[in-house]
Amino acid sequence: MISTLVVWLVVSSTGNLTINELHRTAQARLALYDSSLRAAVDQYRYLPYVVARHHEVIAAITGTGNPRTADMYLERVKQRSGAAALYVMDKTGMTVAASNWNTPDSFVGEDYGFRPYFSQSITGGEGFFFGIGVTTGRAGLFISNPIRGDDEIIGVSVVKLELDEVERNWQEGGETVFVADEDGVITMTSRSDWKYRTLSELSPEVRGRITRHQQYPGKELASLDIGQQLVKGTGIVTINSERFLFDDKHMQGSKWRLYYLTSMDYVSNRQAAALFITASGAGLIILIILFLRERELKLASQREAREFARIQALNIRLEEEIAVRRKTEEELRGTQNELVQAGKLAALGQMSAAIAHEINQPITAIRTFCASAKLMLERGKTEKLDQNINQISALTERMGAITGQLKTFSRKSTGVLEPVDLKIALDNTLQLLSPQLQQEECTLERNEPDTPLVIQADLVRIEQICVNIIRNALDAMADSSVKRIRIDLTRTKTDVIMQITDTGPGMNEETLSLLFDPFFTTKDPGQGVGLGLSVTYGIVRDFGGSIKAYNTETAGACFEVRLPLLKGKTP
Question: Where's the Histidine kinase domain (predicted)?
Answer without folding.
Answer: 354-567
